[in-house]
Amino acid sequence: MVLGPTARRILPYLNFTIATAALAFQTTVLYPWHHELDTAFHRLKEEQTRMLKDFHEVKLKRIEELEKKVLGVELRQAG
C-alpha cells in the first residue's frame, strides 16, 4: 500500500501524538499503580510471613503434645 503525500505529511504528527498520549498514560496511571501494587505485595508478604510463623508455632506445640503422649504410653508399658 502506497501512502499519498497528505498521509506522508500527517503520519509523523500522528505518531508523535500517539507516543505522547502513551507516555502521559504511563506516567499518570501505570506508574502510581505500580507503587500501589508494590505496597500491597509487601503487605501480603508480611501477612504470609506472620501466618507461617503462627503455623510453625502450632506445629511445634502439637509435636510437643505428641511427644508427651508417647512418653506417657512408654512409661505405662514399662511400669
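The above is record 1. Record 2 follows with the same two-line structure.
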Amino acid sequence: MSEQQFKELNGSEQGELAQPNSLVSRRTLLASLGMAGVTLAAGSILGNSSGFIEKAEAAGVTVFTVKNMADLKAISPAGLSANDVYYIAGYYAAGDGGGGEFYWDASSTSADNGGSVIIPTGYAGTGRWKRA
C-alpha cells in the first residue's frame, strides 16, 4: 500500500495513532495492515511449529495468524472476542491460495461449508468462524 493510499484509508500519516474515539472496521484494519503485515506474518510461519504464529493489536482489534485451516478449526471458542480476527496463511499450507481472514460469530448456527463458514473441530455449540 502506498503512503497516499494509507492516508486516504486511515486519515493519518503512517506511524501516527488514530484518534481514540474513531471506530475501525475489521476490513479497514486488515486493509491498513496491507501486504507488509501479511508478509511479516507469513515469514514467521516457516520457523514455528505451533498453530498460533503471530498476534498484532490495533484500534481495539486483535489479529492472530495461524498456519492453516486445521489450526483455525483447532482453536477453542472459549474466550474468543468479537474483536478477534484470525488470518490463516493457507488452507493446507502457507501460500496455497486458500488463506484469508476469519472472525468468530458467536450467534451463528450456519452449516460448515469448508470455506466461508467453519465449525471448530468437535464443537457442537452456537458460533462459527466466518470469512471476513
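The longest strand covers residues 52-58.
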